[in-house]
Amino acid sequence: MRRRLHAAVRLFCDDWAPGLFGDIQMEKVISCFQRRPEAVVRLICFPWAGGGSLHYGRWGKILSSSVEVLSVKLPGRESRSKEPFFVSMQQIVDEVVCVLLATLKEKPFAFFGHSFGALTSFAVADTLKKSHGIEPIHIFLSGASAPYSETRIQASKRSHLSDEEFIKWLSSIGGTPPELLTNPEVVQLFLPALRADLHVVESYRCNRLDGPRLSCPVTCFDGKDDIPHDLQAWKDITSGEFTVRMFDGSHFYLKDPENERIILDYITKHVETSEMDYL
């Protein structure tokens, strides 16, 4: 039944999404803080667990005019705060593919995802290739083990921790100002979204691949002081070039201004190069 439903959703999107959803549905699910209709490539950014689209808003202004940044907004946060959280990876994939499919067919695109976003970006890319025959020109994966790696499968489950344990864990990985973690009202605003996303991650299953799913280049970023991630396992998703780049810092190393500058320069260089190859 579930497979038939997913197939029906894909068929519906192929046939009707461009006309029926239009700008209203696009703006609901996707943020674009800097419109660049003249851009030759789009960078689709996926949030980390509990995160929204705002962090990537700056990227749209910093990156060169050849790149337009689109950022995914999930239910339960930002302008979608009154919507129920998704409970499965398939729900995320179905919505993102349905809303973005027509846009992704217009011009070359690349994906960037950090942590939870790395897994969602791969799941979306996998479906796009299997069901619609399109793929990114480059995928940038950050701060996460491949979904089928033993490192991820054996990782500690966090979604059911008590609030006290949860906050202690958040403090240990960095990225959240300490003054926010000591404010109960603020904590209760972002904790539900974080728990919901971690539940999706913990219930997401992906069997080890029997061969590359993609052919585009894949780059993995990570912080040297973060918990160890099985980055090399990501190599199995593509027959294309595979690269690992490590940075000083822990899980949210990408928030460091110097690290961010290097990452954005790297992304710009590689998507512009890949776009020329695409043509």
Give a concise summary.
By secondary structure, the protein is an alpha/beta fold. The protein is 46% helix and 13% strand.
Describe it:
By secondary structure, the chain is of the alpha/beta class. It has a single domain (2-278), classed as Alpha/Beta hydrolase fold, catalytic domain (Rossmann fold), CATH 3.40.50.1820. Helices cover 46% and strands 13% of the residues. The protein contains ten helices and seven strands. It has helices spanning 2-20, 22-29, 57-62, 89-104, 116-132, 150-153, 163-173, 178-181, 184-203, 257-278; strands at residues 30-31, 41-46, 67-72, 109-114, 138-142, 218-223, 242-247. Strands 1-3-2-4-5-6-7 form a seven-stranded mixed β-sheet, with helices on both faces. Helix 3 (57-62) links the parallel strand 2 (41-46) and strand 3. The longest helix is centred in the C-terminal third of the chain and has 22 residues, at 257-278. It is globular and about 45 Å long.
State the helix count.
10
Oligomer: single chain
Strand ordering within the main sheet: 1-3-2-4-5-6-7
Helix content: 40-55%
Structural class, judged by helices and strands?
Answer: alpha/beta
Which parts are unreliable, with pLDDT below 50 for 5 consecutive residues or more?
Answer: 4-12, 14-21
Question: At the fourth CATH level, what is the homologous superfamily?
Answer: Alpha/Beta hydrolase fold, catalytic domain
What's the Cα radius of gyration? 18 Å
Strand content: 5-15%
Average pLDDT figure: 87
Shape: globular
Characterize the largest beta sheet: strand count, sense, and whether it forms a barrel: 7 strands, mixed
Quickly give the CATH architecture: 3-Layer(aba) Sandwich
* Count of domains: 1
Number of DSSP strand runs: 7
